[in-house]
Amino acid sequence: MKLGLIGCGKMGGALLRGVEQALGKGGLQVALSDVVPEAVAALGQCLRCKVTTGTPAEAAAVSDVIILAVKPGDMKPLCEALGQVPGSRLYLSIAAGISLTHLETWLGEKQRVIRSMPNTPALVGRGAAAFARGAKATAKDAALAAKILGAVGTADEVAEKLLDAVTGLSGSGPAYIYTVIEALADGGVLMGLPRAAALRLAAQTVAGAAEMVLSTGKHPASLRDEVTSPGGTTIAGLEKLEQHGLRNAMIQAVRAATEKSKALGA
Asked: Residues in domain Pyrroline-5-carboxylate reductase catalytic N-terminal (predicted)?
C-alpha cells in the first residue's frame, strides 16, 4: 500500500503505526508531509517501512491513499493545492466538521473522498471510528478506509449525516469516561482507599467492563444483571445512580455534543 500522511500529529501517526503493524513493513510505503519538520522526522523514526518526505503535493503524487490530518482551518487551502496534483487517488479526512461536499469541491471532481471521525484511544490501539464515503468513493475504497481505521480499533461505515452523532458519542465520549473514572476513584478515596489504588481499580474496572461487552456480545443490561444480586451491594449502588440521573446525564451529554458538532459544521 502506498500511503501518504499530511499532518504528522498524534492521530495521523497512530493510524500509520497501526497500519504498519497490520500489514508489516514490507506491505507499506509511506510519504510524510508536515509544516513542522521535527514532526516528520519523529514519526519517520518510529516507522520500519520505506519512508519518503516532501511537500503535500509531493506526498500525494507518490501515494494511492492520502490521510488528511491537518486542522480544520487549514483544510481548504491544502485541498485546493492537492487538487492540482495530476492523477486520481483516495483521500481520507480525519478533520472534524469538514463536510464531504466541501472536501470534494476543494479537491476536484476526479478525487475519491472519505470523511472519518476517529477518537483519541486510537493512540493506544483502542479507537472507535466511523466514516462516510463521498460520491465517487467505491466499496473497495470503503473497505480500505475500514482497514486503515480498523488497524487502531473499530471502524463503522455510516451515512454522513450521522457523523455528528458519532462525534457526540465516540469522538467526545472518552472525556465522559475519564470523568466517570475520576468520580469512581474519588468514591474509593472517600471510602478509605489510597488514591493510586483507587484510580487503578477504577480505570481497570471500566476497561474490563467494556471488554466484557465487546467480547461476549451480550447487552450491557444483561451483563449488569449478572452481577446484581437481590438485596446486594450492586443494586444499592445502582439505586443511587438512578436517583442522581447518571443515565440521563450521559444521554444528554451525547445530545449536546452532537448538536454542537452540527453547529460547527453549518
From this structure: 2-97
Known binding residues for NADP(+) are: 6-11, 69-72
Listed in sequence order, the residues at least 6 apart from 222 whose beta carbon sits closer than 8 Å to its beta carbon are none
Domains, the chain, in order of start with CATH, read: 2-163 (3.40.50.720), 171-265 (1.10.3730.10)
Name the pTM for this structure: 0.90
Are residues 169 and 260 in contact, defined by beta-carbon separation less than 8 angstroms? no
CA–CA separation, 9 and 42 (whole Å): 10
Q: Cite the annotated binding site by residue number.
A: 6-11, 69-72
Encode pLDDT of 172-223 as tens digits.
999 999 999 999 999 999 999 999 999 999 999 999 999 999 999 999 999 9
For residues 69 and 79, is the Cβ–Cβ distance under 8 A?
no
